[in-house]
């Protein structure tokens, strides 16, 4: 709750950047913006707290002045940037190729070149039953044989987490996000909420299985290393 001298960046829908600098004495700033335009607002070295980062201006044929106050927090290691759920239960495919959280990440990294991030992928939305799997092996007589091994729930969750990371890496690459500034980790705690798969019986001979989308975030993006910020 103290005034700050920070760089305020306004991003238009077309991608144009307009920068303003606030006064460290009272935190005030001034910037001429285009009427009828929508802007995304970023603060260099700071994050916006408890408010939408979008500013949509109404169309007007005359000059108007508006006042917009912001509360921001200094970027620190471990600070959460955003969280979202891009997966269906028990699946690693993304439900879309564009997410607001990844767009925020792209903007954040472009405007904070000395900061890296850590993306944590969770699997607590999912659960699997152990199953038997046939595998081939070479015996002592150099003959190929098969045997059954049990694939545990934990092994399946780890494979799911690794595949989810691959999907997110591909999405990050497609958005031209700076890959070298992004690292991944995963948490494979099993699901603690029952019934992720809902079965709807339509007839005696046919059952439709509906895969639900878990509502809580399964991906968290946090600030990692900060170099001379």
Annotate the secondary structure layout:
Layout: E1 7-12, E2 17-21, E3 38-43, E4 46-48, E5 54-56, E6 72-74, E7 80-84, H1 100-111, E8 115-122, E9 131-138, E10 144-151, H2 153-174, E11 182-187, E12 197-201, E13 207-211, E14 219-226
Parallel strand pairs: 8-11
Antiparallel strand pairs: 1-2, 1-3, 3-5, 4-6, 7-14, 8-14, 9-10, 12-13
Q: What attributes characterize this protein structure?
A:
15% helix; alpha+beta; 4-stranded mixed β-sheet; 34% strand; 229 residues
Overview of the molecule:
The structure is a single chain. The protein has 229 residues and is α+β, with helices and mostly antiparallel strands. The chain is 15% helix and 34% strand. The protein contains 2 helices and 14 strands. A 4-stranded antiparallel β-sheet has the order 2-1-3-5, with helices on one face. The chain has a 4-stranded mixed β-sheet with strand order 7-14-8-11, covered by helices on one side. The protein has a two-stranded antiparallel ribbon with strand order 4-6.
